[in-house]
Each structure stands twice: as structure tokens, then as C-alpha cells.
Write a structure and sequence with these properties.
The complex is a heterodimer of chains A (266) and B (665).
Chain A (H helix, E strand, L loop, with lengths): L4 H23 L31 H37 L1 H16 L2 H12 L3 H27 L3 H8 L4 H37 L11 H8 L8 H28 L3
Chain B lengths: L5 E12 L2 E13 L4 E5 L6 H9 L6 E10 L2 E2 L5 H7 L4 E4 L3 H4 L6 H13 L5 H12 L5 H5 L8 H13 L5 E5 L7 H18 L2 E6 L2 H7 L2 E6 L2 E7 H6 L4 H9 L37 H5 L5 E4 L2 E3 L4 H6 L19 E12 L4 H5 L7 E12 L3 E5 L6 H8 L7 E6 L7 E4 L3 H4 L6 H11 L4 H14 L16 H13 L5 E5 L7 H18 L2 E6 L2 H7 L2 E6 L2 E7 H4 L6 H9 L40 H5 L4 E3 L5 E3 L4 H5 L8
Classes of the chains: A mainly alpha (266), B alpha/beta (665).
Chain lengths: 266, 665
Amino acid sequence: MWRSPTLAAGGTILVVVIAMGLAAPWIAPYPATEQHMLDRLKPPGGRFVLGTDQYGRDLLSRTLAGARPALALGLGAVALGLTLGVPIGLAAGYVGGRFDDLVMRVVDAMLAFPALLLALLIITALGASTVHALLAIGIANAPGIARIVRSASLALREAEFVLAARVRGERHFYVMFGEIFPNVLGPVIVEATLRVGFAIMAGASLSFLGLGVQPPTADWGLMIREARQYVFLSPWPLLVPGTALAVTIVAFNLFGDGLRDRVGAA
Amino acid sequence: MPSPVLDVRALSVQFQTSEGPLRVLRDVTFDVAPGETFGLAGESGSGKTTLGYTIVGALAPAARITGGEIRFDGRDLLTETEDQLRRIRGRRIAMVYQDPRSALNPTMRIGAQIAEVLEIHERPPAGAAMRRAHELLELVNIADPVAVARRYSHQLSGGMQQRAVIAMALAAGPSLLILDEPTTGLDVTTQARILELVADLKRRVGAAILYISHDLAVIAQVADRVGVLYAGELVEVASTPDLFREPVHPYTRGLLDALPQLDGVHGLTPIDGRIPKLTALPPGCVFAPRCRFVEPACTAATPPLARVASGRQVRCVRWQTVIATPRRPMAEAIAPPAAGRDAPLLAFEHVSKHFGGAGVVGQWCGMGAPPVRAVDDVSLDVRADEIVALVGESGCGKSTLGRLAVRLLRPTAGRVRFAAQKPTDAQIVFQHPDSSLNPMKRVGASLVRPLVLRGVSRPERGRRVRELLQAVRLDPDDAARRPAALSGGEKQRVAIARALAMAPTFVVLDEPVSALDVSTQASIIRLLAELRRTLGASYLMISHDLSLVRHVATRIGVMYLGRLVEIGAAAEVFRAPSHPYTRALLSAVPRPDPAAPGRPIRLEGTVPSAQHPPAGCRFHTRCLQKIGRVCEEVEPPWERASATHWIACHIPIVELSKNREGNAS
């Protein structure tokens, strides 16, 4: 890992972000929702290391706490995307022929549809909540993952070890998951890592639009949304969560790019 | 003797790797005279390709020349400046690589590519370059150079592509032509014509040729002198007749004894052990660990090149003893099973397999291409206890037939009957060691799976995996290894063990040894023959190698363009009467004997497309014995040559029996 600077940098930042998110309740100086009405919109310094927001809540504490919903949503949505996309891609690649054509045309149609719009539609139908945002982003990620898995398994469909498995009478389910899947794992992990960053971004966007995490929970997208109105009074409530969001996404991308070079995938 | 064009002296090359330096070539010395063809023979890992790259100065950045010199026309290439080298390369030294497809630019017409070489080196007047390109294509025996010059590489067959590459290499009039495995991957009949061309070129252009190949039989056909490379050292240099008549180095002897001979008796004697890893070279002679003449002096120091006679050198301290010892009595011939029992175990009944093509609707609308007729109306029985071999060139449908037998494909017409209890009693072993094992699974895991399917109890499985590994002569501890850590031959053994684990009664062997080195090939073939006896199974062996098949098969079927054209007991197929195609095929097989009689029968043209197979007899477009309209219009009948020997041809059996010359006895 240390031979690749991209991988090392991304990995280090990710470990720090995840550790801070997990330890937030213990290392944060204040509870995330505690209001200090006399210290509203304070700049960094003094009792509040990174300043306060319009309700006098400590920005550092809220940003630390905000790592949890961001990571949970990013990882959860990608996990859901994998759960849906991997079997679809494996089946399309392995079965091939008309089935592959049909599945891939549906996937193409979904890919042609802007992901955020798709997520918006799902949330409009189900109502705004964290779980629905995760569901929406997860579903929006599935077609892209299916496409990657499909092209990787298509190449293995005629591999001799796959043919040998069919000749000895293995079930299709085993051939797909027992023989083909381990060999597409590399590209899938790379793709998933890169997608976590995008999913966090999408989650923050939904929160920003008021369609994801609901107040008063500490969440980066939500914090940015609320801070927008006060940006001319104090930029800190916007800058602090914005920076946290940017650093986390860049870390996932660096890590994913580093992995891609190591795995030698697409 | 004229001064040599190429004079390699004490050349050593190292690769820098994370595991330390790899000494890929050590103290290699040889020369090539003008108008001479020097054959460089070696198995994989011998360093033969690195040697070619070193001479043309195309070494990988990790490689370093640690000693010696390469003199070309008296000048040491290793001390020349980059600028001088560039002028020598391409113009004075040309190289032809194994894969013609990657040597040709797919976006340029053939003529333009050749003309480009001329323009770079000579700047000829307009139009002259293209005329010269046509002449060059004619020089490499292309019958219609003007038409071929206008084509793109993908419009040419493999043999034509390789000729075009050779024409390109000759464009600048090189004085040294390096050919690196130029016929590997080509069919035998195509190979025969390329070899003929190489032999003629020497006369026509007078260039020195360095011919690199793993195939001693090919080298016997083209080379004047031969150098044998083993694990980075040149172990023997001799004139071709001397080397093949009386090999001196124990390794050369081993290689020649491992080659299957067309007589079906000689050859296939494996060399024990395996080529040493370059990271862990044995002390002294590199071949000592595998040599039966080994004595303490061998491992003390690297033996010097000893002079046996004028122009004959050998890197062996015991060469006098070796010469005095008669060639190892060849290993017991592999007795192919006698005629199998009567009941067919597996029967192809008028089986056809067509791929692709427009669907019913498409054809009704008159659109789309016709299907590819990979296999067309083939009937063949494999009886219990016999080995049936299918031979033929690429695209003849032999592999498709193999896949039909194990239900990987369903026939388009006809049926495949398998008289066994379970369909999984038919198993298959494939060609490519690298693709036959799941790279993510340890050997043990690959072998356990079939046992799980057969319901072997959990405690029993470990023991059975060990037994399977022992049955294919691997170490039971290999179960913990990953495929990446195994050699090609070891991987193939695991693939065989995996098929055996299903306790099959019928096994399809699809080119089981064609990706392996000769010495490994021999041991795998012997293993397969022995396992068949213990299993009591039948094999359907698919191969392009006629000499190999001669050793192991009970019966042989010859295929051409989706059809079976001849079937008979192994010995019958190898002698008259034979189908004209079988005759041509047999005559094209290179023999490890420079004195082998007869030129190969030249098949004109290329194999027609399986989408538009010729009417009547499919071979009539290339047949040298075509008797007239009947061949073009009427499907040939099956003629009976003996109770077991059948030929699909219009020519009467009596006439076919007259074709004695050109056939192996």
C-alpha cells in the first residue's frame, strides 16, 4: 500500500475520517444539537474551536457527528447497489444471448436517466427520510455496477475453468458465484470504492434539497443548507462541513484510483 | 569461410527484478555466416526470445547486458551510438515475430505498409515504392501481389499475413533476418509453405537468417546449423545433419527423444525434472539435476564449450562418455488400446452444429449472413475402451465436436447419444493451462468441488484430493498452492486430476498438450495413457499434431471444413489409400530429420469460409487429385477401404491406393 502515494494518502484520510465519525460522541467538545444562544455565528477560536452556527451549536461537534450519516449513507447505498447490480451483471454476462441484450437495454435506459433525478423521483414517491435517500441512491447505483460486472464476467464465460464446471454438472448459481464472481471481485471493489464518494455526494445533495436527513440531526448536506442564508454574516458554518465533505470524497476517490492501479482493473 | 554477418561472443544478459537479478542469458557464443540459416532451439524459459531482442536492441528497460559483444559485419553493436544503431536496425537487421496480426497495422493497406518501409530507408521516386512492394510480395510467393497489396491485414489468412510481414522485413534488403517462431500458431499445411519460403529466401536474397523456434522438427527443415539453448546457456552447436544424427549434449538427446515421431513408435520419452528457476540456478552445469550422465565434476563448475569436431561444440564435460553410450533405448512405446468393445459408448448421429446467422425472420426477409457450419452431418462412434483421435486444421470443427460430446453445445441437427448412467460421466480436459484452473482457487479447492458434487463425505475428501494429486504425479502438498505458482505442465496435471475426480468413463482431450514444451508433453501424454488403462475409460482426443496422435490413438478421424473425410485404425490412416487431404496433411508434418524424403504437397489457396462451404466435396477447391465436375457437384460417398477404414472421396479406392509416395510408411 505504501508504494502507491495515492493509495496511501486516500487510505490514511479515510481511516481518520472513519475513526472520527465513530468516536464523535466521545471526542466532540459538545453534544451535536446543544444550542448556545449567546454564542451564535461565532468565528473559530475561544470556546468553540471552529466556531458556531446560527443556533450557537458547536461546528466541530456537528461536523464530527455529521461523518456518521455521510459514511453510513455512502457505504449503505453502495452496498445496496452491489446487492442489486452484482447478480444482475453476473447473470447477464454468464447467460449471454438475448437475456443479456434485454437486461443491458434496461440498464442503458436507467443509465441514460440522471441519477439524482431518479433518486428525486423515488423520494417523491416514498417521502423524505434518511432510509429512503439510501434506497434511492442505492438503486441509482445498481445499473452502473451491473454493467461493470457484466463486462468482466462476459470475458470469463468461455474460460476453460467455467466450461469445466458446467461439464461436471454444477448449478448455474454456483458457476456464477463460486467460479466467476471471485474473478470479477477486483474490478468490483475498485468500482465500489469510487462510487462511495459519489454516493456521499448524492446523499449530501439530497439533504441540501431537504429530501434526505431531517433536522436537527447533524449532517453535512443539511448543515450547508442551513448555513446558506447566513453566509454573509459568517462563512464558517458553510466552510467547515463543506471542507469535511470535500476531503472525504477526495479520499474515497484517491483510494479507489490507487486500488485501480494496483488491481489493474478497467 | 566468409566472415560472419553476426558474431555473438560471450553474451550475458540480466533482468533486474524485485527478487534479485535474473541471469537470462549466460556466456552465449555463436555466429551466422552470409547465406546461412542458423536455427536456435529452446523450450520456454531458455532465453531464446531475449536473445533475438538483444540483437535488434529491443530489450526491456529492466534488462542489462552484463558482458560479451554482438558483432554485426565486424562492428560491435553494443558500443555503437543510438544514432548509428537506428541506421543498422530495420535496414540491415530485420525481425519477424510470432504473431503477424500484431506486426501489421490494421488501418493500413498491405502495400502501403511495405512501401512505407522503403520510403523511410531509401526515399525512392514516386510510384517506385509501390512497384517494389509488389515485387517483394511476389518474392514471398504471393500469387497475386497487386490485389494483396490493396487489402488490409484482416482480409488475409494467417499464412498470408506472415508472408506479408516477411516481405516487409525484406523491404530494406537486410543482411540479417531474424525469425522468431514465425510459424507457431499456423496450421501444418500453411507452416510447410512458410518453411519452404524461408528455405528459398536464403537462395534468393542471400541474407543470413537466424531462425528461433521451440520446434526441433521445424528447425531440421530450415536450418544449416543449430544451436540448442537451455536455461540461458547454449549447450550445443552443430551442423543440422550432425545434430540430428548424433546429438552429443544429454539435453539435446532428451529433446529429440521426447519428440513424437510419425512412425508411432519412436519418441515421447520424457526428460525427468524441470527447467531450473533462473533465481535458483544449480551449481556447475545447468542441466546436471536432470542429467543421467551426471558425476561430481558436473556440479563443480560451469562446463566450458568443448570442441567435438570442426564446427561442433558442446557444453558438457562428459561428452566423450555420452557419445560412447548408445542413445537411450527409447521408453516403451505407448500401446494404444486395441479395437474397443463393440457397443458404442458415445455416438454422433448425423450431427451438425451451426453458429449464428440470421434468425428465421431475418432469412425470410432475405437479410443477414448464413450461419457458420462448424460441424456438418458428422457420424462417428467412440466405443468403450478405445481412443479416437480427431485431426484437422484450425476451423475444421474438431473442437466443436468435442464440445458437443460433453453437452457444452447442443447440436443444430442430429443427436449425440451417450450410453452411460450419468451425463457427467463424460468429462473434458482443455488446451490452455492458464485458463483451465480458476486463478482465485487453490489447487485443493479446485479438486474438492467435483468430490462435493459426487457426494463424497467431508472427512473422505481430503484423502481423495491427495490420492488425485498422486495419481497425476504431483505432490499432495501442492493442494495448498495457487495456480499462479504452478508451471504449465503442473496446471495441466491439476486439470486432468479435476476431470478424473468425476470418475468419468469418457474423456474429451481438447489439444491437451499443445501449449506445453516437448519434454513436458511426453510425460503428460504418458500419464493420460496410463490413467486411461486404470480408469477403463474411452478418450476422444482432439489434436492438430499427427505424430502425437499416431502414438496414442486406436482410430483416427480426419476432418476438413466441418466434415469427416476419413476414418480408420491409426496405422491405416497413415498409409495409402488415403483421402487427398490426409495425404497433404501428412506430407506437411515437419520431421526432426533433415534427410526426410520428399517435399510437402502444396495445397493451393486457403480453406474456404464455413459460411459458404463449397458444394459437392468440400475439399475440391484445393484438391490436387480432383477428377472433374462430379467433385464440384456431388457429395462424395463413403468408400470402404477395409472393415475399419473409410474414405469420403469420388476417386476409386484402387486409385487412392497408388498414392504411396509422400506418405509415411
